Amino acid sequence: MEILIRDALASDLPAIHGLVRELAIYEKAESAFTATLAQYEKDFAKGVFQAKVAEAEGEVVGMVLFFMHYSTWKGKMLYLEDFVVKEVYRGKGIGALLFNAFLEEAKSRDCALVKWQVLDWNRPALDFYEKFGAVIEKEWWTGKIFFQF
Questions:
Q1: Is residue 53 classed exposed, middle or buried when 0-12, 13-18 and 19+ CB atoms within 10 A define those classes?
Q2: What is the pTM of this model?
Q3: Which active-site residues does the annotation give?
Q4: 8 Å CB contact between 104 and 122
């Protein structure tokens, strides 16, 4: 099976939105997934985020969604918001191809680091990231404030 990793296009957004829903279901949090496809389209058009997709036989089967961020301690960083491969395509090396494409994107932007979050119970993801030499911090807690639209 040939896998093509490429920059996402606006026409890929329905597939990306579907993959994020799949991720939310996997993370047992589908009810928290409230962003609409229309929001994705608006924000993508404004450059709020970018993505890379993995395509197999003309179908988007995985993606990494990211945006620029800044560390006052280290400088520019690329933040990985979501990373998912369709369940039936997992274990075929697609995740490694996508993650490497994300890392190369960060290097091409002269980023000092990349950053993301991973759930403490997601052992397959933790094992995957550790193969890349990732440092998994356990000291920092995430703070959030949600706004109603």
A1: buried
A2: 0.92
A3: 129
A4: no
Does CATH number 3.50.50.60 belong to domain 3-131?
Answer: no
Tell me the CA distances in angstroms from 23 to 46, 88, 108, 134, one per residue in order: 24, 13, 28, 21
Selection from 53, 13, 65 nearest residue 37 by Cα: 13
Cα 61 to chain centroid, rounded: 13
pLDDT digits (tens, 9 = 90+) for 13-56: 999 999 999 999 999 999 999 999 999 999 999 999 999 999 99
What is the 3-state composition of the chain as percent helix, strand, coil, each rounded to the nearest 5?
40, 25, 35
Half-sphere exposure of 77 toward its Cβ, with a 13 Å CA cutoff? 14
